[in-house]
Amino acid sequence: MTAEREPAGALVGRDALAASITRMVTNPGAGDRMFWLLGEAGIGKSTLLRHARAVAEDAGVRVLQASGVDAETQQMFSGLQQLLWPVMAYADRLPEAIRIPLDEMLGRAPLPAMVDMYACRHAVLHLLEVLAAESPLVLLLDDAHLLDRDSLDIVVYAVRRVAGPMTTLCSSRGHRIPDGVDPGVAAAEVPSLTDAESAVLLDRQPMTPSRSARLEIIRQAEGNPLAIIEFGRAVVRSGVDLSASTGDDRVRRVQSLFSLRIADLTPQTRKLLLYAASGSGYESLDIITAAAGFGGDLSVWREAEQSGLVVIDGRAVHFTHPLVRSAAYSDCSVDQRRAAHEDFAARLVDDPPCRAWHRAAAADGVDESVAAELEGAAELSHRRGGFFEVARALERAAQISPAPDKAALRYASAAHAAYMAGDPQWGLALAAQVRRATTSPEIRSAAALPTASILLQTAKPDEAFDVVRRTFSEYTPTDESLTLALLFTALGAAHFSGGEWRRTALSSLAEAIPAPSAGGKVSSEGRDLLSPMPDAAKEAVRQLIAEYSTSTLGAEARVALDETSSIAAKISYLLAEGTRAYLSENSVDALSYFGRGIESLREVGSLGAGAMGMAAFLGALVDTGRWNEVDKAAEEASEVATVGRMALVEAIVEIHRGTIETHRGNVDVAKGHLARAATLFEPRANGALTVDLTRARSFLACVNGDFASAYERLRGVFEDDGTPLHSIQSVLGIADLAWAGARSGQQASARRFVTAIGRAIGSKPPARIRLLRHLAAALVSETTRGAERHYRTAVLDPDGGQWPVERARAQLHYGEWLRRNRRPTDARPQLAAALDTFESVGARTFADIARAELRAAGGTRGSTSTTTDGWASLTAQEQHIATLAAEGLTNRQIGEQLHLSPRTIGSHLYHVYPKLGVSKRHELRGMIDRAAR
Questions:
Q1: Which pTM was predicted?
Q2: Predicted local distance difference test score (pLDDT) of residue 869
Q3: Within 10 A of 675 (CB to CB), how many other CB atoms are there?
Q4: What pairs with residue 718 in β-bridges?
Q5: How far apart are CA 708 and CA 761, in angstroms?
Q6: What angle do CA 434, 436, 437 make, to 5 degrees?
Q7: Are strands 316-319 and 310-313 parallel, antiparallel or unpaired?
Q8: What is the predicted pLDDT for the residue at 383?
Q9: Radius of gyration of the chain measured on its C-alpha atoms
Q10: DSSP letters along 664-687, please?
Q11: pLDDT grade, residue 239 (50/70/90)?
Q12: CA distance 846 to 663
């Protein structure tokens, strides 16, 4: 283990382990005395130990370290010499009976013919106790399985007996603690990185690979950090083509141990390893053995398996480390590799995708027959490995195509497949190849679809819309499928950009949609696979485009799906209908359509293509109160978005997470999510996201008691005349705007604004917007009759059941209003119902308010926090304000003392009351007295 420092925050995907290690090394001896990190080579054990060292030294803790190496495994006490040499000055102060064994072990005196191991153990224990008594101590043993046996035994002996503050962290290769160590000692296996974490690590490297290689590196590294870094370095510096299983000298030098071990094997075994490494991953053990020329004799694998480089699992061969495979392939000559691929192609006559892939790998230059074979096997490639395999095959087919236009068409199909595979950057790179290969407007229009789709996913909706508009101005596609797919993408771009003029522009572009194909026969599965818009989904998409472009979403009955349709058609249909439901605020249907669509995408291995749908599905979960499913859905959508660098999807997820955490009362966590969301997009180009983020931040401000700033923020998502800046997203903030206005003393202003917004959105908005508008009107009403009429509509309308949390908000505010109007008996059912909903979904913020209001209305429903806990949860300033209010001071008097406005004092008290379980000012004194006791 080297002495270089691990920068703070440099770890990726190791939060839980790093946190545990930090606790252990900053407070040695308080937890586990010894802790083992287990895992394969390159998984990050040494990195975690470097992190431990940096953290410990920053905390002023002494660190001693040693690292096992093969060359010193049989060298007695070599590990102890590394570990204790920096503190040998302490040995000179120890009694002779202790000092002499230490000198002998550490090489300062010759070892006797007969070593007294008891004296050695006692001497090391004594030295470590002296060190721990002086200051906390951490021992780090990297690759402890390679330490000499005597050193490890003595350290284990001492660790169990040192009385002072000392902790020992060890790492070991494999999945079990080395023999001789107490099997009950604490240990953790360092996990592989997820794809999202792998993407983050790869992007942190000084030199990042090209877009086309990025997903291949993540796929082949299988979550191993060392493999990710070295594959990335090899690709950048030497142009290694990982997709063709190649390597180079640089990779071999990095993995010299693997290469040396392979070189020590017999020629027969080396050949087997080459053929195993040359495989596409789908060849069986029997095929590999036969292709290598050994017929059906599986005994030839004995040496390879005994070497520990491969594992035979049933009828499959697995390399024990990704870089073993690279070394086995790259250590052979080009002719040997070509011969391996040719031998596979000859054997795989019944496996067209594998045969085509091996023929392509063996090809030297362009070859139309091989390119056509790869393209023709696309459907089978998809069934085997999803759209990633399709994109890889079509890219290779394009590379070896002799005719530029054919190459361009194959690049366009590859770009679409890469987009479907969830790698937008690779898709953009492939689409760029289309423009380089041809000037044909017709062929270029095929590349416009993945280009626009990817630009939208990466939070560039304006550019996405312009790509579609420019395509239609240069060449109007005659293919109905491509036209509908382009317009569907333009619809998404128009929505997220927020510019209403794009809705009008979309209406003009929609005139180019060809008439429906005659016959209406559903396409075959094979034709649907790479079709931009399968036949069975076309009518649903056509209807969605027509309704959106004319602002009549949800006006028509939905189109039914033919149950005999292909899986590709089913996915397109479900995503289109889900989008239609979501944009028309039909949250229950949106949840159903997107949920089924995502499951279908998962079935075909193409979640990346549904990232936008996954984000909308998350929103529907939030809207419909299924908050127990939110965290899992957010994590899955976030991982897909991180791997594909889909900034728009990431931003949506972060905003939803921020909103949910605000409801849960985790204010600091919510702030973090919203702050990250703000870094992911350009506000001027992303109207929908900007409005959503503003609403989320305003809600957070309300929860913090800052109603005045929340009101100003929310006014900013509307024009002065009430026209929404975004026709759909802005209006969702109308109730919070009214709440903030009323609570900040600006009820008259808020009432005028709510009225203006009502005029702007018309007389027949979607049910959700209608109910929010009634709640907003109730909150700012200047008459008792008007307020009650609006409250009752917001609470009792049966359509409101789709949005349980919003209905509970209406019940809460209605209950507050009823209690303040001296109707506690009427208030209690509303408050109890609201509390039930808030507690069931985990909305602690509103549950606390509802519970306090219910108690004040004479109800006893719901659990309560202790007075002491409530008081302790207040900030110092909140406690000060509550104490002054309890003493009888007015808001103005408190404000004069604290140099704050009376309105700010009122906001603080509104936030304090539910935390303390009170609802009136005079109740504060008794509560504070109880807390003091």
A1: 0.72
A2: 55
A3: 12
A4: 724
A5: 25
A6: 65
A7: antiparallel
A8: 59
A9: 34
A10: HT-HHHHHHHHHHHHTSS-GGG-H
A11: low
A12: 7
Q: Cα–Cα distance between 382 and 172 in angstroms, integer?
A: 39
Rounded to the nearest integer, the mean pLDDT of the chain is 84
Tokens 């001492």 locate to: 158
Beta strand 186-189 with 137-142: parallel, antiparallel or unpaired? Answer: unpaired
Q: Lowest-confidence range among 793-797, 804-808, 907-911?
A: 907-911
Per-residue model confidence (pLDDT) at position 270: 94
Mean pLDDT calculated for residue range 645-663: 95
3 state SS of 274: helix
Residues in CB range of 544: below 8 A, 6 or more apart: 488, 491, 576, 577, 579, 580
Plot region of 346 (φ>0 → left; ψ -120 to 50 → alpha; else → beta): alpha
Q: Are 607 and 640 in contact (CB under 8 A)?
A: yes
Tokens 């949840």: give the residue: 591
Task: Tell me how far apart the alpha carbons of residues 840 and 666 are, in angstroms, rounded to a whole number.
Answer: 17
Q: How many angstroms separate the CA atoms of 347 and 344, rounded?
A: 5
DSSP 860-895: --S----HHHHHHTS-HHHHHHHHHHHTT--HHHHH
pLDDT in tens, 278-316: 887 678 899 999 999 999 999 999 999 998 888 887 777
- State how far the alpha carbon of 581 is from the alpha carbons of 491, 589, 601, 620, in Å: 14, 6, 19, 10
- C-alpha 930/C-alpha 928 separation (Å) is 5
Contacts of 133 (CB under 8 A, 6+ apart): 164
877 burial (CB, 10 Å; 0-12 / 13-18 / 19+) is exposed
34-39 vs 137-142, strand pairing mode:
unpaired
Which residue from 703, 700, 708, 699 is spatially nearest to 734, judged by alpha carbons?
699
Q: For 575-605, how does the pLDDT look when each residue is reduced to its tens digit (9 = 90+)?
A: 989 998 999 889 999 999 999 999 888 776 6
For residue 510, what are the β-bridge partners? none
Q: What is the predicted pLDDT for the residue at 114?
A: 64
- Residue type at position 687: G
Question: How many other C-beta atoms can be found within 10 angstroms of the C-beta atom of residue 229?
Answer: 18
Q: What is the DSSP letter of 521?
A: P
SS3 586: coil
Q: pLDDT digits over 80-122, tens only? A: 988 998 898 888 888 888 889 898 888 888 777 566 777 888 8
Length of the chain: 933
The predicted-structure confidence for 350-362, as pLDDT tens digits, reads as follows 888 888 888 888 8
**Rounded to whole angstroms, what are the CA distances from 919 to 849, 851, 854, 924?**
9, 10, 9, 9
